[in-house]
Amino acid sequence: MLALFCGSLSAVSWMYAAMLGVGRPLAWKYSLCELLMAYPLLIALGFLTMLALTQPMAEHLLHIMLWSLLV
Length: 71
Description:
With about 70 residues, the chain is mainly alpha-helical. The chain has a domain at about 30-70. It contains two helices and no strands. It has helices at about 1-20, 30-70. Helix 1 (about 1-20) runs antiparallel to helix 2 (about 30-70). The longest helix is centred in the C-terminal third of the chain and has 39 residues, at about 30-70. The two termini are about 30 Å apart.
């Protein structure tokens, strides 16, 4: 769980920095408050996305490990 959070935090941070760098000409359109509010929202969205992508795989691996113990 910690690895998912750290990975999503890293990915969101890099993409957010790239978005701010590339989107500098659009900075006049959004206030500083809007830009700063987007960061925690993107982190939460990234974490939930990673959780949704990896949860079925974790359940599948757990099922395989338990099945191998029984056999």
